[in-house]
Amino acid sequence: MKDAAPQTIYLSDYTPYGFVVEEVHLTFRLSPTATRVLSRIRFSPNPEGPDRDFFLHGEDLALISASIDGTPVQPEITPQGLRCDVPDGPFVWEAEVEISPETNTALEGLYMSNGMYCTQCEAEGFRKITYYPDRPDVMSVFTVRIEGPHPVLLSNGNPGASGDGWAEWHDPWPKPAYLFALVAGDLVNHPGQFTTMSGKKVELNIWVRPGDEGKCAFGMEALKKSMRWDEEVYGREYDLDIFNIVAVDDFNMGAMENKGLNIFNSSAVLASPETSTDANFERIEAIIAHEYFHNWTGNRITCRDWFQLCLKEGLTVYRDSQFTTDMRGAAVKRINDVSDLRNRQFPEDQGPLSHPVRPESFQEINNFYTATVYEKGAEVIGMLKRLVGDEAYAKAVALYFDRHDGQACTIEDWLQVFEDTTGRDLSQFKRWYSQSGTPRLRVSEHYEDGTYSLQFSQTTPPTPGQNDKQPQVLPIEVGLLSPNGDEVVPTTLLEMTKAEQRFEFTGLSSKPVASILRGFSAPVVLERDSSREERAFLLAHDTDPFCRWEAGNALARDGLLAMITDGAAPDTAWLDGLETLLRDSALDPDFRASMLDLPGQSELAQALHERGVTPDPQAIYDALERLKMFRAERWADLLPQLAKETRVTEPYAPDADQVGKRALGNGVLHMLTRLDGGAAAQKQFDSADNMTLQLAALAALIWAGEADAALRAFHDRWQHDRLVMDKWFGLQVALARPDRAAEQAKALTEHPKFDWKNPNRFRAVFGSLAANHAGFHYEGGAGYDLLADWLIRLDAKNPQTTARMCAAFQAWRRYDDGRQARMRNALQRIAGTPALSRDTTEMVTRILG
Ligand code: BES
Ligand code: ZN
User: Fold this and answer.
1) What superfamily does domain 302-434 belong to in CATH?
2) Position in ligand 1 atom list of the atom nearest CA 313
3) Which atom from ligand 1 is nearest to the alpha carbon of 290?
4) Ligand 2 centroid to 488 CA: how many Å?
5) Taking 50 as the threshold, does the pLDDT of residue 75 lie above it?
6) Model-level pTM greater than 0.90?
7) Each residue of 700-713: pLDDT tens digit?
8) Would you tell me how many other CB atoms lie within 10 Å of the CB of residue 87?
9) DSSP string computed for 654-690
10) Fold of 9-293
């Protein structure tokens, strides 16, 4: 039972726990509806925690017995936990509780997925397993005994004794309860081995359901690469004899970094060329790296409290993006990360859910695993590294590991190591952690007598709870190009600290063209009155790949906005500039494919809103369609040649080279489909030997309205593969025509394979509906109503996934009165649902404002 009247928790209220947990012993007697958990925990008074109130968290637990130092006690029990009188000195707490994993549909705590037991404890799930001080600053050494008739019994740390029907595990590294994990089931493993830099052999395993063992090889290689990379780049070595990864089908998130026993959503680890797209492979590689990197940034050094979440998540996202950059190339990774930031974090930061990278209050912490904490949190680290330089960054991080190993830390600890190694004062920089909202950076330029100056001004619009904003430190990377395209001033870092600031470059022989915010050196909205000619020049000549892409992106966006608002014709100068790039076979195909991407519908809606225009989703959709058709026709001659150039003849490999070719080739296929009605797509669909080509062809056929047979064939071929069927469900909704999207989603909920309690399947249908901008917002509001109905239904089973998906409504105030009223109505209907979870209540309340 969750709190009836949700309480708000404040960062400023932090106090240490009154007790130290010296040691934890847990015994699990597994049974689907009556698992017994026996705990024996040694406590002692915490000299740093003045409050001697002995409180243990516990939710949905049946207490069978409890004792202190062997004497039975009768604690006072509330829906949140228990209280008890305890001795003044050290004591041993023992308890036995009963829980029901089979009926646990929230997928938090100990639950069952396809007959297998597994756990998810972050952030506050351990309290659903036993009574415990479930807070990240309480760290202890765990010994676990599992009893159950399952061939595989796993927990954290190193394996201990085992026998028929039981196994023991010991984790020597003190950890908070949120990193606890247990898995039991009929699983098979894909084994591997890794020798660490000091020569220690580590046993590796990926555990999966029988039948999935053929989909583990790629994940295993990604794991080994991650282990090596963390040694080489951060000097971090693995610290146990064994590292286990388990794939589960029912999982709220992507994956979880439990010490020595990572648990993954099967979609985030299982891969094969026939069933996974290139994008799936890339994501799997990144997520395996991410969870592995947490072993140091998160586990060895953890968070003092959940307000410090970005300490581990922002840093670990930053680390996994460095890893992907090293594995796959910098340019496209940066472009993808920036698109992601703009599509997911900017809307959050510019709407009712806006919050700082380090929030100061919450009701339900699960609602703060956000794009802001993760992606903006990673951007903040990137800025810090830019400001202090690579060498100082490496020194500071080494000091962080050295100084804080084994501790539960804060953002202050993190910044302190940078201040100590560089002597810099980071107090202004710290505003990035406390101020919410996306800064707008305006720039104007001036040239006279060989001196070129850039005049910048920054402002951050008000966000909920924060009306007055202070100037932030902005690292602005700039390069100057001469009119013939030579770089006259190479990338230079300008450090802006004031609301208005001017920077000068002298000794120039002519007026340069500036390439500003290279590499997207700060997460801001750059406002620059550059001419189309200047942008076209940067598109053709910029030496910074991100800014080159950005120039094309800005031209595309402005051209589309003009088409939407004034019915303008497509910008042919931009298309001609792009064509020159596309024809340049010396350019990386992956980069060229990125150049083909157009701003998303939601991004365009936001851009219109920023310009004071109420977005009309159908008009946005129509303009994009018009542009895509226009582009295909204009480039008709170029397409066959590009298609040929991007054909891959070697056996499938998800490496950067092939991925780029397929990405460009699939971009070409979509253009061809607009000219040939689907003939090329049908051919590609029929002959594809990998999912990347097959799915792109299916998408093209859906667009062409010629997919009936292909959808049936795809269904029949893949009906037994859960992950491929998620694609089948998702694509049909994501690509449905606006007037058909809600209907399509509804029809799919009636399909026998629509298992709404499985988060992947639920997201396949409803995440795709929300992502289908014109479809979700189609006049009449059928999309809103359908999503609200299903969120209300899901909330009773799985609050966490429900709450996250409420964000589909976050931008409701952007739209016209009619749409606003319909979305408000949908939100109020959710809000008014009896017994609505704390998670969803908080989200809809904040969104309604
Ligand atoms: N620690 C999180 C998983 C998590 C999040 C557990 C929220 C409980 C509540 C994990 O490290 C993580 O961040 N996973 C991401 C993927 C990652 C590559 C950003 C996820 O699951 O989406
Ligand atoms: Zn993480």
Assistant:
1) Neutral Protease Domain 2 (1.10.390.10)
2) 13
3) 18
4) 41
5) yes
6) yes
7) 999 999 999 999 99
8) 11
9) -SHHHHHHHHHHHHHHHHHHHHHTTHHHHHHHHH--S
10) Immunoglobulin-like (2.60.40)
